C-alpha cells in the first residue's frame, strides 16, 4: 500500500483479472470491440434523433438521452480498464477513484430514473393517446429528462462524499475492474453502517421506485392492449413499447442477478468476487449499452427508416 505521511491513502490497486494474462488479452479485444460498437451505435441514434424531424418526439428525445448516457457511462470506466489490461501498473489515484465512483454512480442512477420516465411516456401514448401531445408536451418531457440527470448527480454526490471521508487502512486492493462504490466502501477500516443505510435509502428512491413505476405503467399498458379487439391493433400497440420493455428487462434483470444470486461460502467469507460476478458485472457495464441501439433499431421501423435516410443523404452528398 502507498501512503503519504503514513496517514493518507493516495492510490488503489485494481485487481481485475491480475494473474491471468491470456484472459486479459482476450477481454481487451472483446471490450475494445464492444466499446467501438457502443460509440457508433449510440452516436448514430443521437445523430438521427437530432437530424430527422420525424423523430422529434418525447420518446426519441428520451432515447437520445439514453444513448448519450450509455456513452458517458462506459467512457467513465472502459478506457481505464483497457489500459489496465495492457499495463503492469494497475493502480488508480484516490482522487481518480473518487471521480470514477461519482460518474459511474451518477450515470447508473440517471439511467434507472430515465427508464422510469420512458415507461410513463409509453403508458400515456398507449393508454391515453388523444391527450398524449398535451400531457407529454415539451414543457413536460424536457424537465423530466433534466430531473433524471439531476437525481443521478445529487445521489452520486452525496454517496461519494460520504465514502471519500472514510478512513482506509490495511487494504487498498479493489477486486474489480473499476472503482465500484460498494467495493471501495468495504475497504474502509471504520463502521460503514451509516454509508450502507444511505445506500439503502438511495437504492429505494432511485432504483426501486422507478422499477415500481415501470411495473405499474406496463400493467396498465398490457391491460389496455388486451382490450383491443383486433390482433393487428394489439400488435401495433405492443410494438411501440416492446423495445423499451426489452431494455428494461435486460437492465434490471442483470442487476437482480448480480445482487440476488446465491454466493459461495468462500465469497461470503471474503471481499472477493468470483469469476461469474466479474463476468456479469462486465455484461452489465458494457453489453447492455451495446445492445440498446441494436434493440431500438431492429424493433423500431422509424429508427430504421431514419438511418436509411441518413445514409442515403450521405451518399447523395458525395
UniProtKB/TrEMBL annotation:
Membrane spanning stretches: 25-48, 60-78, 98-120, 141-162, 197-226, 238-259, 279-298
Alphabetical list of InterPro entries matching this protein: GPCR_Rhodpsn, GPCR_Rhodpsn_7TM, Olfact_rcpt
Source superkingdom: Eukaryota
Residues in G-protein coupled receptors family 1 profile domain copies: 41-296
PROSITE patterns linked to this entry: G_PROTEIN_RECEP_F1_1, G_PROTEIN_RECEP_F1_2
Gene3D superfamilies (alphabetical): Rhodopsin 7-helix transmembrane proteins
Topology relative to the membrane: Multi-pass membrane protein
Subcellular location: Cell membrane
Keywords from the UniProt entry: Cell membrane, G-protein coupled receptor, Membrane, Olfaction, Receptor, Sensory transduction, Transducer, Transmembrane, Transmembrane helix
Keyword Cell membrane carried by entry: yes
Alphabetized CDD domains for the sequence: 7tmA_OR13-like
Family: Belongs to the G-protein coupled receptor 1 family.
Record protein name field: Olfactory receptor
Amino acid at each position: 500500500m502507498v501512503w503519504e505521511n503514513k496517514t493518507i491513502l493516495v492510490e488503489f490497486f485494481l485487481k481485475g483479472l491480475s494473474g491471468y494474462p491470456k484472459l486479459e488479452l482476450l477481454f481487451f479485444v472483446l471490450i475494445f470491440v464492444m466499446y467501438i460498437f457502443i460509440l457508433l451505435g449510440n452516436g448514430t441514434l443521437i445523430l438521427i434523433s437530432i437530424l430527422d424531424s420525424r423523430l422529434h418526439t418525447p420518446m426519441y428525445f428520451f432515447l437520445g438521452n439514453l444513448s448519450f448516457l450509455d456513452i458517458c457511462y462506459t467512457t467513465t470506466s472502459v478506457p481505464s480498464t483497457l489500459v489496465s489490461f495492457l499495463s503492469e501498473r494497475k493502480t488508480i489515484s484516490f482522487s481518480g477513484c473518487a471521480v470514477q465512483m461519482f460518474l459511474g454512480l451518477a450515470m447508473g442512477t440517471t439511467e434507472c430514473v430515465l427508464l422510469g420516465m420512458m415507461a410513463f411516456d409509453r403508458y400515456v401514448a398507449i393508454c391515453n393517446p388523444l391527450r398524449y401531445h398535451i400531457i407529454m408536451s415539451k414543457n413536460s418531457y424536457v424537465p423530466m429528462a433534466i430531473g433524471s440527470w439531476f437525481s443521478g448527480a445529487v445521489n452520486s454526490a452525496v454517496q461519494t462524499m460520504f465514502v471519500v471521508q472514510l478512513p482506509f487502512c490495511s487494504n487498498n486492493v479493489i477486486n474489480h475492474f473499476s472503482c465500484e462504490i460498494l467495493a471501495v466502501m468495504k475497504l474502509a477500516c471504520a463502521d460503514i453502517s451509516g454509508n450502507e443505510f444511505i445506500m439503502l435509502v438511495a437504492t429505494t428512491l432511485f432504483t426501486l421506485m422507478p422499477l415500481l413505476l415501470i411495473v405499474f405503467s406496463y400493467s396498465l399498458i398490457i391491460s389496455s392492449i388486451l382490450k383491443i379487439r383486433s390482433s393487428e391493433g394489439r400488435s401495433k400497440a405492443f410494438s411501440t413499447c416492446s423495445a423499451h420493455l426489452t431494455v428494461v428487462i435486460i437492465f434490471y434483470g442483470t442487476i437482480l442477478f448480480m445482487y440476488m444470486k446465491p454466493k459461495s461460502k468462500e465469497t461470503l467469507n471474503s471481499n472477493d468476487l468470483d469469476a461469474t460476478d466479474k463476468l456479469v458485472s462486465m455484461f452489465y457495464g458494457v453489453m447492455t449499452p451495446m445492445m440498446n441501439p441494436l434493440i431500438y433499431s431492429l424493433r423500431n421501423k422509424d429508427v430504421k427508416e431514419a438511418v436509411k435516410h441518413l445514409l442515403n443523404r450521405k451518399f447523395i452528398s458525395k
